[in-house]
Amino acid sequence: MKERLIGAFRRARYAAIGAAIGAFLGGLVSRNGASTGGATGALIGALVGEKRHDVSGFFDSVGSDDAEDEEDGERRLSKIRNSAADDD
């Protein structure tokens, strides 16, 4: 339930930001453009909020917590540092 509420608030926040940006850009053209730009910006903002929420959740679920992966990464990082020190 908490995740659903967080997702709804995230979409609403992006929709509000998109509406403000769209209304500003449309307002540079005309009043009708401000209305249309606000509606379009809100739609795009909500879509971005939905996709961003899904993608971040996807990457969190894919991440690995294996100790072997961390040791392997540290080993590679130390090799890179050593090779950079050798170049100096």
UniProtKB/TrEMBL annotation:
The chain crosses the membrane at residues 12-30. This is Glycine zipper 2TM domain-containing protein. The keyword Transmembrane applies. The keyword Magnesium does not apply. Keywords: Membrane, Transmembrane, Transmembrane helix. It comes from the Archaea. Pfam families: Rick_17kDa_Anti (PF05433). Residues 14-50 form the Glycine zipper 2TM domain. Residues 59-88 are annotated as: Disordered. InterPro entries: Gly_zipper_2TM_dom. Residues 63-72 have a biased composition (Acidic residues).
